[in-house]
Amino acid sequence: MATFLRASSRLRPLSRLPAIRPITTTTKPAASVAAAKVPEQTVSEELYFPNEPLKPTVRTAIPGPISKRAIEDLDKVFDTRSLNMMANYQNSFGNYIADPDGNVLLDVYAQIASIPVGYCNPALLAAATSPEMASAIINRPALGNFPQHDWANILRSGPLKIAPKGLDQVFTAMAGSDANEVAYKAAFMWKRRQERGGPDVEFSTDEISSAMNNQSPGSPHMSILSFKSAFHGRLFGSLSTTRSKPIHKLDIPAFDWPQASFPHLKYPLAEHATENAKEEARCLAETEDLIKNFHNPVAAVVVEPIQSEGGDNHASPAFFRGLREITRRHNVLLIVDEVQTGVGATGKFWAHEHWNMDDPPDMVTFSKKAQTAGYYYGNMDLRPNKPYRQFNTWMGDPARTILFKAIIHEIERLNLVENTANVGEHLYSGLERLAQQYPNEIQNLRGQGQGTFLAWDSPRRDDFLKRAKGLGVNIGGSGERAVRLRPMLIFQKHHADILLEATEKLISS
């Protein structure tokens, strides 16, 4: 195996990056306890990034001296207090993130789950340097007023090509928080149109005048129901549905909106099936009670398939099917927030596909790995009854939508959703073996059958994340105790073995 120095020297400037083409290599499992219990054999893989480093390189402490100087300089003009590490993206490639000091880390955090097909992906570079992209960047349109002539084709060949089942319309937005907020607006307008008697009923004089004073009936007393520990963004409306950490919400005025309990499952799931079913039934009953009785009537329920920022909290498909049944019965919309779980991360393109629902959600929001944002819907009644009700200058970004189109093409060309499902099984098995050997260090391992969207609780989580960088792995956390894995879709079994080996070193020391 090449030395760390030789591995990092493989990184090439953007102008000389090779095309990604799957090639077959033969490797042995990593020499860790997790891998050692696998029968000795060779493993063949098609490498998506054949020229990426063979393994991490750690030359200095992180941050190193060059990074420290860059951070000090940046702090003069930009708040650096949430900084994780200083990166050099020109030298990052595939699954590996580089810093200015020459450290090259296996990245299983991937910009908070938002890099889908690798750093400096040549296919995305080709899309980014195309005439189509150049026009979209320098002639950025106010989409509501002046959409470009091929906008419909961009949407059909991009976001709508992989739209969730039953949802054939899309409203583009700027970011995940924005996507959720415009979905909330759509829900409120839909609900009031129903109460008013239909789309053709005009606004009353009282509604028009009171709206300008932020008073009812023009500004009605309605709500969006979310769940405890949920995260749906940090803008004003989305923040009122975020319940994960006080630091997000302190000092910010919020709407008087309800929150229901999200199931707190016990692991291993197979050993606690009865208890977990009762817990999910309790949470569904609480949700229905709030829908029926909360003083500000509920227009929609918003839920994450996996509560990512709140601690990687899971629920069963039966819970979500029950939630769909309750919302349908009470004429309340169901919004599924797939900002973090969407675009292949869980072994299916959309995480809610795991629920096997006959009745799809009313709206599905997306961002992160899509590199753009928005929400899908199918019911045309979710379009406002008048122009300018869902409107801003940009209403999304054709440049980012073109990038999403290229991402979708890479996912399909390399069969990356299936790859994520397969690698997830391999990684989960390795972690499960480590959890059995170190039960105090890997607690409540979760995410089986959910691709590489895995997590566990650690009694010394923050120390684990910090020391991981010293072994050449960039990992993130969620909630108070969870270690969360958010690798890219190009993450493969040999990468998983590097991660397992590093994890064992960290938890055994």
UniProtKB/TrEMBL annotation:
GO terms for cellular component: mitochondrion. The keyword NAD does not apply. It comes from the Eukaryota. The keyword Transferase applies. Its cofactor is pyridoxal 5'-phosphate. GO terms for biological process: gamma-aminobutyric acid catabolic process. GO terms for molecular function: 4-aminobutyrate:2-oxoglutarate transaminase activity; pyridoxal phosphate binding. SUPFAM superfamilies: PLP-dependent transferases. It is an enzyme of class 2 (transferase). Pfam families: Aminotran_3 (PF00202). It catalyses: 4-aminobutanoate + 2-oxoglutarate = succinate semialdehyde + L-glutamate. Its EC number is 2.6.1.19. Keywords: Aminotransferase, Pyridoxal phosphate, Transferase. NCBIfam families: GABAtrns_euk. Belongs to the class-III pyridoxal-phosphate-dependent aminotransferase family. This is 4-aminobutyrate aminotransferase.
